[in-house]
Structure formats: structure tokens, C-alpha cells
Specification:
- By secondary structure, the chain is an alpha/beta fold.
- The protein folds into three domains: 71 residues, Winged helix-like DNA-binding domain superfamily/Winged helix DNA-binding domain (Arc Repressor Mutant, subunit A), CATH 1.10.10.10; 130 residues, ATPase, nucleotide binding domain (Nucleotidyltransferase, domain 5, 2-Layer Sandwich), CATH 3.30.420.40; 149 residues, 2-Layer Sandwich (Nucleotidyltransferase, domain 5), CATH 3.30.420.40.
- It contains twelve helices and 15 strands.
- The strands form four sheets. Strands 6-5-4-7-10 form a five-stranded mixed beta sheet. A five-stranded mixed beta sheet has the order 13-12-11-14-15, with helices on both faces.
- Helix 9 crosses helix 10.
- The chain is globular.
- The two termini are 29 Å apart.
Length: 377
């Protein structure tokens, strides 16, 4: 028997439609809403009043309309009605960022805290997060949650680190943090986090292979607008594909993994500054240029192999993205053309649109997305 829709459900649906219409269009009039959503003026008026009283929207100046007379009031959402916090956990520091409902940065902070798998570290980190939260001058109910981006594989329920050799944190539970924080908390793999932020700034993106080229190598597969996790939770861990069996040692215990060829750690010498290195590269300093070309050759070989498996766009992201130039993509494409049996158009190599703070932002975004996807506003 088909269930009928109740008046309350219709009311909730209309309110949600109106809120999302305002969210999408940024600044709209009552007439815009009524015309585009085909809702009666009284229905729109009632819902706007309720949304405004609940703090979700506010009047935002006036808008010129085709009607004769005074200008119509404009409505916009309140971006910080709800916010989310992303925390990137690294070996020697943590990076925190607070974002609003548009994914825009409210505040950002970096704190030098050395990672340690012990109670003192958990308390210190959570205390720092709470200090950061207090600096925002917001109320606790505004915070949707805190996402912790980690260099490790995460369980499907986002509650446990199932493989964390970089930080020696395998088995770490989110409860070590959530017990000190009055907000929902979850883990997220840092490469997945970076890919989520890429999807946010490129909503038209549906399928891609995201390469996280940072201190350590990582990747994420985007399919139909979603991040694929895989059957056992270690999808797209390309960093442990063995390229040179007799090569350098990888942190996983094997030798010659992609990690040892394509991480920033493998590119730069000890204590070498990336800015100085790439300045030398662009000035064609012989030693630096030779090292960079070697790196790009390894990258071309790896992309070619992965592209033969998954014929899609490849996004070069994370820390390295800010230093890449079109000439680097041209070089990569030329090298790939010499390796692949197929004639490829120069359209599948892309530079990330969001190389800055992308991991911390991506860790915060799932809570924003969940709020916006909630049918009841």
C-alpha cells in the first residue's frame, strides 16, 4: 500500500527546497524563490520567516526587480550557522582549519606538537583544538563535528586507524580524542581528504585519479563523484606498488615502492627547502634540473601504468601542486606518449585547483556535506 505524504512532510520539503535554493543562488528575493520553485507567495513568506527566526537565513540588503516600486528584500543564508573543523595530524605539527557552510575558511592555525601515541599527546591536541574553537567566538551547538586527517588507512566506520606505519599509530581509536571533545569526531585518510576538497571546488568532477604528491605519496580514486574505499579498505594505495625491487627502503618494509620515488621526501635532500629547489629548477641549475627530470620520469612511468588500468583524468595535487607548471605537464605527456601503446590527447593530466590547506579542509567537509544533505532543515 502506497503511503501518503503528510502535511508536515510537505512543509519540511518546502522549507528545505527554499533553503537550498538560497544556498545555491547566494542572494535572492522572495519573488525569485516563488517563481523558480513554483511556490505560492504565502508559502514562501511563511518559510522565510521560520528560517530567519531559526537563524538559518538573514535579510541581506535589497535586489533590483522587474517590478515597479521599491526594491525587494534580499535573502542569504547565514554561512556560520553551522561550521566544521578539520585537523591534519602530522609527525611534528598539527594544522587546524574552521570552515563555514560554503566551505570557506573562517580561521586557520598551525601548532608545533610532536605526535606520540600516548595520553599526554591526546590531551594536548584536544586542549589545543578547544583553544582554537574558543578563538572563533562561536557557540558549541554551531560546530557540526571535527574531522581528523591522518597518514594512515581508516576503518569503514571512520573510528580506527587500521594501518598507520608512518606515525606508528595502527589501532588508534577516535575515542582517544572524542573523550575530551564535546563534538562528533571521525578519522579520514589524508589522501581521501585532499580528494574530497577537490570534489568540493570542482562539482562537475565525476571520475578521476587523484595523486597526493606531498612529503609522502598517496592517492584516491574518484568514481561517479564518490571516493572509492575498496573491499578491504586499502583502495588506491599506489604508494606501495613495487617499482624497483632493489631500490630504496620504504616505510612499509619493502624496497623500491612508488613512495620511494614520488614522495617529496625522495625528491628533496635533508633540510632542503622546496622553494629554493624549484627556484633552482626554473633557473635551470643543472643538478636540481636533473633531479627534477628524474622525478618527472618516475612520475610519468607510474601514471602511464595506472592510466592503462583506469582510463580517466589524473589530478596532480597536494603540496607539489603549487610548484607545477604547464611545461611540467607537457614533459610528462611527452614521456607517457613514448611508453603507452595508445595515442593519448593532452587532456587527462590536471593540476589540483585546491593545493592550499586542502587536507584540513577536506577533513572538515563531510560534516558540512551531511548537514546540507539533511532533508530536514
Amino acid at each position: 500500500m502506497k503511503k501518503s505524504i503528510t502535511p508536515n512532510q510537505i512543509k519540511q520539503n518546502n522549507r528545505s527546497l527554499i533553503y537550498h535554493y538560497i544556498y545555491k543562488n547566494k542572494k535572492v528575493s522572495q519573488q525569485d524563490i516563488s517563481y523558480d520553485l513554483r511556490l505560492s507567495r504565502p508559502t514562501v513568506t511563511t518559510n522565510l520567516t521560520a528560517l530567519e527566526e531559526n537563524g538559518l537565513i538573514h535579510k541581506d540588503g535589497q535586489i533590483d526587480t522587474e517590478y515597479v516600486g521599491r526594491k525587494a528584500s534580499a535573502y542569504s543564508i547565514v554561512p556560520d550557522y553551522r561550521i566544521s573543523i578539520g585537523v591534519e595530524i602530522l609527525e611534528k605539527e598539527i594544522k587546524m582549519i574552521a570552515i563555514d557552510l560554503y566551505g570557506e575558511q573562517i580561521s586557520h592555525m598551525v601548532s608545533a606538537i610532536n605526535f606520540a601515541y600516548n595520553e599526554a599527546y591526546f590531551k594536548t591536541l584536544c586542549s589545543t583544538i578547544l583553544e582554537f574553537k574558543d578563538s572563533l567566538k562561536i557557540k558549541d551547538p554551531q560546530i557540526l563535528g571535527i574531522g581528523f586527517a591522518v597518514q594512515g588507512l581508516v576503518s569503514p566506520d571512520k573510528q580506527t586507524i587500521v594501518y598507520g606505519k608512518i606515525l606508528s599509530c595502527t589501532g588508534l581509536s577516535i575515542t582517544e580524542f572524542s573523550q575530551y571533545l564535546p563534538f562528533p569526531c571521525c578519522f579520514i585518510h589524508d589522501a581521501d581528504s585532499a580528494a574530497i576538497s577537490e570534489l568540493w571546488v570542482s562539482p562537475e568532477l565525476t571520475d578521476a585519479f587523484y595523486l597526493s604528491l606531498s612529503r609522502h605519496l598517496g592517492a584516491a580514486i574518484i568514481s561517479q563523484g564518490q571516493i572509492l574505499s575498496g573491499k578491504h579498505g586499502h583502495n588506491s594505495t599506489i604508494e606501495h606498488i613495487q617499482m624497483q625491487p632493489d631500490g630504496a627502503a620504504c616505510y612499509c618494509g619493502r624496497k623500491g615502492c612508488m613512495e620511494t620515488l614520488l614522495s617529496m621526501t625522495s625528491l628533496l635532500t635533508d633540510n632542503e627547502d622546496a622553494e629554493d629547489f624549484f627556484k633552482n629548477v626554473r633557473q635551470k641549475e643543472p643538478a636540481s634540473l636533473e633531479r627534477w627530470n628524474t622525478f618527472l620520469n618516475h612520475l610519468a612511468s607510474s601514471i602511464n601504468m595506472l592510466h592503462l588500468v583506469y582510463d580517466t583524468d589524473f589530478i596532480l595535487g597536494e603540496y607539489l601542486a603549487q610548484y607545477l607548471r604547464m611545461q611540467d605537464l607537457d614533459f610528462l605527456h611527452e614521456q607517457i606518449q613514448q611508453m603507452t601503446p595508445f595515442s593519448e590527447a593532452h587532456d587527462f593530466l590536471l593540476i589540483s585547483k585546491m593545493p592550499k590547506h586542502n587536507i584540513a579542509i577536506g577533513a572538515a567537509l563531510p560534516y558540512i556535506q551531511a548537514f546540507l544533505n539533511d532533508s530536514v532543515i
